[in-house]
Design a protein that fits this description.
Strand content: 15-25%
Shape: extended
Structural class: alpha+beta
Mean pLDDT: 83
Helix content: 25-40%
Number of strands: 11
Number of helices: 9
Low-confidence stretches: none
Length: 313
Amino acid sequence: MARPVWSGALSLGLVTVPVELYPAVADHTIHFHQFERGTSDRIRNRRVNERTGDEVTQDEIVKGYDLGGGDHVLVEPDELDEIAPERSRRIDIEQFVELDEIDPWFFDKTYWLKPAKEDFAKAYGLLLRAMDRSEKAGVAKFVLRGKEYLAAVRAGEDVMVLNTLHFVADLRKPKDVMGKLPELPKPRPKELDMALALVDEMTAPWKPEDYRDEYSKRVEELIKAKEAGKEIAHEEEPEPSADVVDLFEALSRSVKNRKSGGKQPKKKAAKKPGPSGLSELSKADLEKLAREQGVKGRSKMTRAELEKALKAS
């Protein structure tokens, strides 16, 4: 069983319940060490004096705030400890809000809250059911590992959930990150209707178990294959599909494809144009026709060579 990352008390008015905080999310990221290519020598990060090149121990390091122009304000770790938030052992709920009022933009990490002892199960259960019935979340602040967090406490399935939230000052607006956004043209009514039809057609119940981390799975397979000394085969990239210029046509085809269960309609065999019709086609169309006819080396041919190869095929 996992160990709690924090223990203290959940406080609501005059009701106080000792609780423990547990991570609700496990990190399954595959981590690698660094090696020098062609050797078995590990590459390690060390704290080194930039001027002398000598390694420096942790207790010899102080922090410096960059003032610009090469000037820094030096601060001792003890000085930071003195002004750090008190190692609070309380999660004080300051108010309740409708859960859907909190934009997903604010959510950070998820934790479980459980009563520290069975003696407090009654008070814990009462608060849990009150949150569940009201469908509201309690807004609180608490200190974890020397840092102050904003949090939302809400009811989960038979357990309280604590989500740490970003402070407003931490959030970046789109215009601050990307600059000026392009002007968005107003869609034509039929295009919007077709887009809505596609959204409706693709709407299904949320089943998170249907989604897997495919990349991590492939990394694991790569590691196992290399460990066993197998040759690694790479899949060839599929040919890119032709661009569809008409947005309405693209949406219409998407809706029809969803209704047919994802089966692509069979394409009719392209009629081979006569010799006189080849001269009327663009080079891109000639290359496309050559691909359909199975002409080899088409990408390196001139227009005249393409027409000649198509006439001969």
